[in-house]
Amino acid sequence: MKQAIEEQLRAAWVLLWAALLFFSGSAQGKENSAETWLRRMATALRTLDYEGILVYAQGTRLKTLHVVHRLEDGRIQERLESLSAPARTVVREQGRITCHLQGDQSISIDGRSLYTSLFFPQNPDLQTLAPYYFFHMQGQTRVAGRLAQVVGIIPRDDFRYGYRFFIDQESSLPLKFDLLDTQAKPIEQMLFATIAFKKVSSAPPPSPAPAPPPPPVDPRPWQFSKMPPGFQLVMIDRSSSLQAQKLVHFLLSDGLAAVSVYIEPGEEKGLIGESRLGAIHAAGKRIQGHQVTVVGEVPRKTVRAVLAGLIYEETP
Amino acid sequence: MNEQQREQLSALLDGELPQELVEPNLRAIGADPEMRAVWERYHLIGSILREEPVHPEYRCVAARVHAQLQREKIAFLPKRVGGDPSSRWRAWGGIGLAAVAAFFMVFVVPQFFSSSPWEPSQRAASSNLPPARPSLAEGYPRWLLDQPELVQKLDRFLVHHQLHSPATHLQGFLPYATVVGYEAGY
Question: A290 lies in which domain range?
Answer without folding.
Answer: 222-312
